[in-house]
Write a structure and sequence with these properties.
The chain is built from 20 helices and 14 strands. The protein is an alpha/beta fold. The structure holds adenosine-5'-triphosphate and magnesium ion.
């Protein structure tokens, strides 16, 4: 049997989940059916043979299949006529068309009607098996993802948290348990592991869900500004306080206040926060009246708070107040089985957001993602998939569209691989397109900023965007 690469570092596709993968072959030629039956059975697949469309559809109704191999030219109902009927019954099942007469129009028509791929008779066994494996794995990952979302949605209201590792499941169980209470929660995890997402999930599953969820990055502000933002101030409390202002503790009354990057907060502010946590009371800056609030606090940190206490940067008493329930979010590199479902989730999201047809990752692109260390965790993975989707011009996103530091490839290599037979002019256009997209990404898709940084008039940038067919998007997602 030929050695075929296993995609995704996943368990062998034939035994993913409980059952062996099952393939339905629909072909009118018995010699073709026989040789496919031998090839696929030896490879470990369960196979079912159908000699025409009628038999094929009947089998499809009676059994569960992971993939269909469908002959294009058959007497009676052709493969092309059959394809929509199959997709009507099972929209997600991958179908690989087999043909000896694969004219370009047929290929295009079949792919448009939802075929996964095409093989030409006589086929290369190794390539056919590799195509089947990757389609089966992908189909199972997609199915698993949908199942997972259904389960998470049933258990809690976690529609946008994706993962299947045991660690993430434990986190979600804990989140589900603590959400209904008003206990303070401390979320710890490296940058980009999903701390804010979890904080929002806790709020969304709590009785406070209809009140405000107020996030504040406590690390990003000087102490004075932070305190006036959190506690508000009376008129004249300091020079620029020309009018009284409410603080976020009042804005979040009845809801949840999310204190992000708590470790970098100054010692004085820490003392004031401690007081609100103890008494649920505080005063406006410059005020004398105590204000009572009902706010649930969720705090997050990407550095070890216990160590910050030891180093004398964080108050021990506040640490114990915050650390009632701790949710530890593990880095992505320690739960790699979450990568395929996350990839699928972001592919769906960004194709949908950009109004693009579905995109898939090539096997070697997925392998590169599985092997990478992900210092920026899920956020870095998300950015990488978003970029791949935006740069892609066909249904498959190859590893040439991934950043070089992930694949170990240089920019030049990626460009030449992406455009193997293109003219120099076309390659230069590709460079221009990638550079403009990269700059726009960095400028949050603000064209004026990008034009300024490129030292070109905005009108020139706009012409280029139009000529290079770059889709401009609004940023920010919930
Ligand atoms: N399990 C997950 N499922 C789906 N999306 C996720 C998951 N974890 C993280 N994300 C996404 O990754 C991105 C980063 O997540 P988030 O902002 O919550 O991370 P963070 O830990 O708060 O990062 P930082 O420390 O940098 O503030 C977000 O777009 C979030 O939606
Ligand atoms: Mg965050």
């Amino acid at each position: 049997m030929p050695e075929v690469d296993l995609p995704l570092n996943a368990p062998p596709p034939i035994v993913t989940g409980e059952s062996m993968a099952t393939i339905l072959v629909i072909d009118d030629e018995s010699a073709i059916r026989d040789s496919l039956e031998v090839l696929l059975t030896l490879e470990g697949y369960r196979v079912k043979m159908a000699a025409d469309g009628y038999e094929g559809l009947r089998d499809l109704d009676l059994d569960n299949f992971d993939l269909i191999l469908l002959d294009l030219a058959m007497p009676g109902r052709s493969g092309l006529e059959l394809l929509p009927l199959i997709k009507e019954r099972q929209p997600d099942i991958p179908v690989i068309m087999i043909t000896a007469y694969g004219t370009v129009e047929n290929v295009v028509e079949a792919i448009r009607a939802g075929a996964e791929n095409f093989v030409q008779k006589p086929w290369d066994n190794e390539k056919l098996l590799a195509d089947i494996r990757s389609a089966v794995v992908r189909h199972r990952v997609e199915e698993e993802n949908q199942q997972l979302k259904r389960t998470l949605k049933q258990r809690y209201n976690f529609t946008n948290i994706v993962g299947k590792s045991e660690t993430i499941m434990r986190v979600l169980d804990l989140v589900g348990q603590v959400a209904p209470s008003r206990s303070t929660v401390l979320i710890q995890g490296e940058s980009g592991t999903g701390k804010e997402l979890i904080a929002k999930a806790i709020h969304a599953n709590s009785p406070r869900r209809d009140k405000a969820f107020v996030p504040i990055n406590t690390g990003a502000m000087p102490s004075e500004l932070l305190e006036s933002t959190l506690f508000g101030h009376v008129k004249g409390a300091f020079t620029s306080a020309i009018a009284a202002k409410k603080g976020l503790f009042e804005v979040a009354n009845g809801g949840t206040l999310f204190l992000d990057e708590i470790a970098t907060m100054g010692m004085d502010t820490q003392a004031k926060i401690l007081r609100v946590l103890q008494d649920r009371r505080f005063m406006h800056l410059g005020g004398i009246q105590e204000i009572q609030v009902d706010v649930r606090i969720i705090a997050a940190t990407n550095i070890d708070l216990r160590q910050a206490v030891r180093d004398g940067h964080f108050r021990e008493d506040l640490f114990y107040r915050l650390n009632v329930i701790t949710v530890d979010l593990p880095p992505l590199r320690s739960r790699r089985e979450d990568i395929p479902p996350l990839v699928q989730h972001f592919l769906d999201f960004y194709c949908n957001e950009n109004g693009m047809p579905a995109r898939k990752l090539s096997t070697d692109a997925m392998r590169a993602l599985m092997d990478y260390e992900w210092p920026g965790n899920v956020r870095e993975l998300e950015n990488c998939i978003e970029r791949g989707v935006v740069l892609s011009s066909g249904p498959i996103i190859g590893s040439d569209l991934l950043p070089g530091h992930i694949t170990g490839r240089s920019f030049q290599d990626a460009l030449l691989e992406h455009n193997p037979n293109a003219s120099l002019f076309d390659i230069l256009e590709d460079i221009e397109r990638r550079i403009i997209i990269e700059k726009l990404e960095r400028c949050n898709w603000n064209q004026t900023d990008a034009a300024e940084q490129f030292h070109i008039p905005l009108s020139t940038l706009n012409q280029k965007i139009k000529r290079l067919n770059i889709e401009i998007r609004k940023r920010g997602r919930e």
